[in-house]
Amino acid sequence: QVQLVQSGGGSVQPGGSLTLSCAASGRFSDLAMAWYRQAPGKQREYVAEIGSGRWTNYADSVKGRFTISRDNAKNTVYLQMNSLMPEDTAVYYCNRGGRSGTWGQGTQVTVSS
Predict the structure, then answer these.
(1) Strands 10-12 and 45-50: what pairing?
(2) Exposure check for the chain: N or C terminus, fewer CB within 10 A?
(3) How far is it, in rounded angstroms, from Cα 49 to Cα 6?
(4) pLDDT in tens, 36-92
């Protein structure tokens, strides 16, 4: 049974930075990992993904500001978020296996002055 345990997040002013972490049990190094987010009243949306070969893909809304990375020795995926904006406020979820796969518990990120 794969489990994804998230850490990080919190509150920050616009322009600030935060880093999210997601530690996985079970298989990790050969699988793609992703981050999604869900803002109040909105559907969960794709943020970024990293493959086993370390290819990456980003939603247009975060491209150039967010960086996804992974440490296979630690079974952990990260999301470095820079130049945060109020519209980045959401609960962020780590994911393995797409929308029907395994989800982390969610982490609140609030960007506000």
Answers:
(1) unpaired
(2) N
(3) 16
(4) 999 999 999 999 999 998 899 999 999 999 999 999 999 999 999 999 999 999 999
**Tokens 């296996």 belong to which residue?**
97
What number of other Cβ atoms are within 10 A of residue 110's Cβ? 15
E strands along 9-96, which residues?
Answer: 10-12, 18-24, 33-38, 45-50, 56-58, 66-71, 76-81, 90-96
- For the chain, the C-alpha Rg in angstroms (whole number) is 13
Tokens 């609030």 sit at which residue? 110
pLDDT (0 to 100) of residue 24: 95
Is the CB of residue 60 less than 8 Å from the CB of residue 70? no
Rounded Cα–Cα distance for residues 48 and 23 (Å): 16
Is a pLDDT exceeding 80 seen at residue 1? no
Please name the residues in contact with 11: beta carbons below 8 A apart, sequence gap of 6 or more: 110, 111, 112
